[in-house]
């Protein structure tokens, strides 16, 4: 009977598959031999494979534009990157090579925009879709951008009181309105805390926005937490949003943009299956049909993709330091960093990532739990998306075993407070950037070395 780890994976999934393959018993990630990287840079290690970012953007742009052409849809498609998913300069540099637009979420995001413009990375013509509940500092900075000639700044109203910030601004303001979508039935709340209620939007526009010659409502925005999914819930919410759009479009010819907030899912399991082409075509088709039925022009389409853009570019690599058998069934592999501090989504929202061994694929496997270095009882990982357990090669203290958590490129650094203090003062790993040159050869660059004790202690006032 075959009982190696390779046999387990080969019998359970289609393998090799896009992004994952083997050379001898080493894992290849997008053609990269991770063991070669470990040999040179050590572990723990946070890797960003930058070409994946551009590939994701081009994939979405191509699929949307193909659907628009196939259906003879009368409107354009605009890809926006959610800066909150990753603010790193190397991420934005890669993103902006692909002629996209930006979605902002905070006052400091405006400072980031000015930095990007000073570096020549963006122009004043690119769209800046500005979301979130906006304190005065945020709205003041947005107005400052408009006065400085940024032509396509779009504050998306999160509540009706926000409008007051723009009514007295000495500049014409293009606006969006975010719809407070109904949450899924199993959510803690009935309605999103973000946005304006469906029932309030029409009168709000007629009474507060339309009479002011300096204000134009250009965009309707809706956001679904679970993203664009082929579910009754998603299609129902889209239908309600299209009803609001058509109603407003009949009284406001300046409303020309529909923002399909909520991202595409990414691969968190080797059995991941999502038909991007079908979903995009069906979304475009439904918008087109509804507008035709209502006798209104079809809008330009905007999406805001953060995790989809950068998530699949990220890998975290750890070394198994030791094995602990705590009772007859619970076997622990202890790794050389903390899961809570490097991947806070594991702790915060019970997110599951792809976990695979980097080496020793032809050893027997066993069921294990992964334990982090912190003293917190929640610093662990014990199941995958497709099965309620983790299997990894048998540990042998004489030969190092490495494991990787894949598609961790979005949000984890922001949520964990990159460069700051960490639980139990466990340092942030070294960050390595991997790219390809013009002929396809791999290039590597250390963005930042592993965090040192002195850095943390200085932050803490020592």
Ends apart, CA distance between termini: 59 Å
- Number of individual domains: 2
Look at the structure and name the CATH superfamily of the largest domain. Alanine racemase
Helix content: 25-40%
Q: Enter the CATH topology name of the largest domain.
A: TIM Barrel
Instruction: Return the average pLDDT rounded to an integer.
Output: 89
Please outline the major beta sheet.
Answer: 10 strands, mixed
User: What is the correct CATH architecture of the largest domain?
Assistant: Alpha-Beta Barrel
State the total count of DSSP E strands.
Answer: 21
Assembly state here? Answer: single chain
The proportion of residues in beta strands is 15-25%
CATH class of the largest domain: Alpha Beta
Which runs of at least 5 residues are low in confidence (pLDDT < 50)?
A: none
The radius of gyration is 24 Å
Q: Helices and strands: which structural class?
A: alpha/beta
The tally of helices reads: 15
What are the key terms here?
462 residues; Lyase, Ornithine Decarboxylase, Chain A, domain 1; TIM Barrel; 10-stranded mixed β-sheet; 8-stranded parallel β-barrel; 21 strands
What does this 3D model show about the protein?
Strands 4, 13, 14, 15, 16, 17, 18, 19, 20 and 21 form a 10-stranded mixed beta sheet that branches. The chain has an 8-stranded parallel beta barrel with strand order 5-6-7-8-9-10-11-12, surrounded by 5 helices. It has a 3-stranded antiparallel beta sheet with strand order 1-2-3. It is of the alpha/beta class. Helix 5 packs parallel to helix 6, helix 8 runs parallel beside helix 9 (232-249) and helix 9 runs parallel beside helix 10 (276-294). The chain has 2 domains: 5-42 and 312-459, Lyase, Ornithine Decarboxylase, Chain A, domain 1; 52-305, TIM Barrel (Alpha-Beta Barrel). It has helices spanning 5-12, 34-41, 51-70, 89-96, 107-118, 136-147, 164-167, 198-209, 232-249, 276-294, 307-310, 339-342, 344-348, 412-416, 453-459, and strands spanning 20-23, 26-29, 32-33, 45-49, 77-82, 101-104, 128-130, 153-157, 173-179, 215-223, 257-261, 300-305, 314-325, 331-335, 354-357, 365-371, 380-381, 390-393, 402-406, 430-436, 442-448.
